[in-house]
């Protein structure tokens, strides 16, 4: 029997610091009324000095594992969707694999802009359905505040930081991720991009002076693209799943702009109560926005077993994607205190294991004789 890929766990992490519109108005020429009318955003979360994409991913992943009642060594695959990794390499997912103690898991990052989480769901679910893996962790995580020009009113009012995670597990009961649709149009890549920092424009005095390490966006063109693609991708994934818009209990769109969400909702003829939005609290968190909304919808009881949910997004690339999901997971029961203690101990052991492995590599390098050496001297 062909297995299905079910969401069995979820978790999120947002920084403590909330940057309100009123605070932003002291930094740049704007106002709460201007931002709210044009975006629907009231505040956004901003990472502290010690917080990173990895640290938020770790917290979200630990929550998801707790909800799923799984141990890290039961994970077969870790995928992190992000445009703000801790480093260009190694992949942030590999660092997370080590921090979790997920010793059996393969790991990689993917970059598909704000559509990244949906891309991750599509890739991971197909690997589970194909029988390659049984359990996968998919995360969307961003620290956009570190690539935002806080003097640019057109972009700084939009973006925030956060992470959301889900765990997918193969199972024979019908449901889970029923269909996914992924798309791209690279001819629109320049509409939303980070010009420098890659191999084309390596970091230099010029790239820094010209602000090429900040997000650059042509808002009107992106708006038109989003308003067209969000409804189209939703309809396409429903058709692929053999369903219709009337079957949808909850639409979770990418949280970019309230006007985009409302335009897509009207195009789909969906009532507002069947569309989830937390944009006003977090702003646009790119690949983290859909999993953050999914986690909150699940925690609030907005998704019940048997419900049909559609996650749909668009982003830099240009990319777009949608996933039709039949929810099968009941509300999680609280974790007993003893189990919480044992889980904390497990993560402490993972940290200890990581340090011991690093120490062993250092010692092994120190003691291992250079294969190019002869009689203590390198051959000429």
Task: Describe what this molecule looks like in 3D.
With 380 residues, the protein is an alpha+beta fold. The protein folds into 2 domains: 4-326, Thiolase/Chalcone synthase (Peroxisomal Thiolase, Chain A, domain 1, 3-Layer(aba) Sandwich); 337-368. The protein contains 12 helices and 15 strands. A 5-stranded mixed beta sheet has the order 1-7-6-4-5, with helices on both faces. A 4-stranded mixed beta sheet has the order 8-13-12-11, sandwiched between helices. α3 crosses α4 (92-100) and α8 (219-240) packs parallel to α9 (258-268). The radius of gyration is 22 Å and the shape is globular. The N and C termini lie far apart (63 Å).
Task: Draw up the topology in text.
Blueprint: E1 4-13, E2 17-20, H1 21-24, H2 32-39, E3 43-46, H3 53-68, E4 77-81, H4 92-100, E5 106-110, H5 116-129, E6 135-143, H6 153-156, E7 161-171, E8 176-184, E9 192-193, H7 205-209, E10 216-217, H8 219-240, E11 250-253, H9 258-268, H10 279-282, H11 289-299, E12 308-315, E13 319-326, H12 337-367, E14 373-374, E15 377-378
Parallel strand pairs: 4-5, 4-6, 11-12
Antiparallel strand pairs: 1-7, 2-3, 6-7, 8-13, 9-10, 12-13, 14-15
- Main sheet summary: 5 strands, mixed
Task: Give the N-to-C terminal Cα separation.
Answer: 63 Å
- Based on Cα principal axes, name the global outline: globular
Q: Would you give the CATH topology of the largest domain?
A: Peroxisomal Thiolase, Chain A, domain 1
Strand order of the largest sheet: 1-7-6-4-5
Q: What is the fourth-level CATH superfamily of the largest domain?
A: Thiolase/Chalcone synthase
CATH architecture of the largest domain: 3-Layer(aba) Sandwich
Summed up, the domain count is 2
Instruction: Bin the helical content.
Output: 25-40%
**What is the C-alpha radius of gyration, as a whole number of Å?**
22 Å
Task: Give the C-level CATH assignment of the largest domain.
Answer: Alpha Beta
What is the average of the pLDDT values? 94
Sequence of secondary-structure elements? EEHHEHEHEHEHEEEHEHEHHHEEHEE
